[in-house]
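Why predict the complex rather than its parts? Because the way molecules touch one another can change local conformation, and only a joint prediction can capture that. The input here totals 290 residues.
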Amino acid sequence: MKKLLLLVIIFCLLFSFTGCGYLTGRTEEMVTDYNNRLEKTLLTYEMLKQEAEKNQESLVSFILGETKEFMGFSEIEDLNTVTVSSNSHIVIRKDYFTALDATALREVLLLQGENLVYVEVIWGTDGIISITRRVV
Amino acid sequence: MDIKNKKRGTLTIIGTLCFILICGFIVVTVVLNNNIIELDNSRNTYLDTRERAKEWVSQEVINYLNSIDKTSWEHFRESSYLDEYARNQIYGNNFEEFTLPGVSQYMILDTQYTIGEEDYKVYVKTILNINDSKRETVFIATIRENKITNMVVY
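Output of the joint prediction:
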């Protein structure tokens, strides 16, 4: 009986040691995985932001209808029916949005001209996913 | 009497085993302490604040949309996430001046944030049902030190 109890005690100790070791190992894996996801998000963000900044001028021309095509993209989704006048507009605000695990970048531009135009462009790693426009 | 003793014995054994298990875990935790601290420090916390902001900014947007009467208006206006300017900008000074959003239904579609600078913006995309018509609406909140300092609706 005593031997059996001793065996059970040793088993319990071993179980707690290995259990704790396993949990630490798993946590380490999770931390590594999280750090990798974060790094990938930041890399994608930087890459797409550079691409967006590089093409901002031609994007604005496309939004204002001065050019018919922008990087192989020819459709703008209008969120209201107000026509955008093609008079000179300047970019008064630009922001780039992302989130953890995002594989695309959301670019938000505010153009000031005869009217205020809100533009949203979603940049994917394979090119533009969507362009929406609203006259505010 | 015998059954009582047996029960007590079983309970003592189970209690002892649990105690040993807990002791084992404590011993291992103490032994691995440095490793655990190192592990905790190695986690990249760069986006933590912004990821949390996604949640509470969405909640602020929901609160705004739910301000349908004076009681809710007073309640949501007192949110600790709004600074003085944002509070007046969003809710106004008194309920009578407050323009009710009149939203019967809403759905949060996406939330994102800007990165790079200390002050950042949180983007909340919603679909609102206003007077039986659906409208895509975007809320962009500017955050400084865990407080909304400005909120713009497009």
